[in-house]
Amino acid sequence: MEKININGIELAYARHGKGTPLVLLHGFPLDHHTWDEVIPLLENTFKLIIPDLRGFGESTTVDETYTMDDLALDIAGLLDHLEIGKTAIAGHSMGGYAALAFARLYPKRVSGLGLISSQALADPLERKEGRYNSAKDVAEKGIGGVVDAMTTKFTPDEQLQEFARKTMERQDPDAYIGALKAMAERLDSIPLLASIDYTVVLIHGNADALIPVDRAHEIKSIIHHAHLVEINNAGHLPMLEAVQETADGLKYLA
Predict the structure, then answer these.
(1) Strands 87-92 and 46-51: what pairing?
(2) What are 82-101's pLDDT values in tens digits?
């Protein structure tokens, strides 16, 4: 992993391949290894930029509260460092929220948008309160409760559950706390969708137990030109459960 200092953090990132720039943003509470299986299928089509979002993986975090906009600012700074003006950007789950924030803040820098197991809606009040309660539990008791609660919801595949558990267990508790609060306070991106005229790809498993596939259909109903890749029997980790279908879907962004 390469690293740069930006916005008060050390941001770690990997680069692979050549072609159209494509930023891949991992979900909560994971890291860049989420993308390991699709990289070989994409690196002949894209110049891949794969960061660890602040606090996760090898990236550091800050003590103060931050937002999805701050994650987008981190990505913009990374692109400036790499002298990349315009890019496709795709995010898994929470990474999709950060990608939407980037698209709102930097519309002229986006050539295409991918949302994988993600959604455009803001959290309803009950869900927002649940995230703050989870952040409090992590601060008081550690990450074990969140890890246990999420492992089986990610996927029914037991081997991938083990991958998810190990990935979650190596993350810093401060990353959990910061990201939970940032997700709770994220803006509703529905108003943004109607203004999008570039390529959009929606990749979603129809067995997703964390974010139902209905969220992808809602986005498709607003962005009629979006490519919807609905994957049968896949859960919340299609880039690991259905590697080829996920890679093929992302290639619409080339």
Answers:
(1) unpaired
(2) 999 999 999 999 999 999 99
